[in-house]
Specification:
Elements (H helix, E strand, L loop, with lengths): L19 H16 L6 H4 L14 H13 L8 H10 L2 E3 L6 E3 L6 E3 H18 L3 E5 L22 E5 L4 H17 L2 E7 L2 E7 L1 H10 L1
Parallel strand pairs: 2-4
Antiparallel strand pairs: 1-3, 4-5, 5-7, 6-7
Bound molecules: zinc ion.
The site of zinc ion (ZN) has 6 residues, from strand 5.
């Protein structure tokens, strides 16, 4: 039994042979370890209040930190599409819905947590003003049973706190998005990774940090 993730996928969407049900089992083990203090919180306090990462390049830390965060804070991971519907009904997840500033493209489950929705709305409005295009969202919550084959076992898409943005073809928009995601990441509110296969930006909103930022404004 592993006490901490030892595999180090460089990107959130790296191939994984672990079955969805095993992911759930692993999280249960991790939760138990956390509850018994077998997993040191020092791992997290070392970055408390600061950024999880310093660039948009993928790293094992960029993948594991959000997963650890979600596990420590006991965020509900949706295992099936039924779980997603239930959490939508309960209000934990909300619809991305229509917006003058973003569109969804081929998103099977266009739902995220409220905090992530706030982040998406604000970023998309700024992006639209900044470069003249709408932000394109290509993924939101994904049940564990329906994660793509190349998904990481540590993905937090099932928890509804992650979204994927299509990589802009327009160079001005691409520069805008890279620059601003990095600024927000350095503030500690998101964990963002530029993925290449397929080309997109994977962004995890860190709920506590982002809520603190909003409250301070
Ligand atoms: Zn993603």
């Amino acid at each position: 039994m592993r006490s901490t993730p030892s595999a180090t996928p460089l990107h959130e969407d790296q191939p994984s042979s672990r079955h969805a049900s095993e992911r759930g089992a692993f999280r249960l083990v991790l939760r138990a370890l956390v509850a018994s203090a077998a997993l040191s919180l020092l791992t997290f306090t070392g970055t408390a209040g600061t950024s999880f990462a310093q660039s948009l390049r993928g790293s094992s830390r960029a993948v594991h930190k959000p997963f650890h965060y979600a596990t420590i804070h006991d965020l509900p991971f949706s295992r099936t599409s039924r779980d997603v519907k239930r959490r939508l009904h309960e209000g934990y997840l909300v619809k991305l819905g229509a917006s003058p500033d973003y569109v969804t493209h081929d998103v099977s489950f266009p739902y995220v947590t409220r905090t992530t929705l706030t982040f998406v709305r604000r970023l998309a409005a700024q992006y639209h003003r900044g470069c003249g295009e709408k932000l394109v969202i290509t993924s939101a919550v994904r049940p564990e049973s329906m994660q793509p084959a190349n998904s990481s076992e540590y993905s937090v898409h099932p928890a509804g706190i992650a979204v994927d943005f299509r990589k802009p073809r327009n160079s001005k928009c691409l520069r805008w998005l890279r620059r601003n995601l990095l600024i927000i990441e350095k503030r500690g509110d998101i964990e963002a990774t530029e993925e290449h296969h397929p080309a997109h930006f994977h962004v995890v909103v860190i709920p506590e940090s982002y809520k603190e930022y909003l409250a301070s404004r």
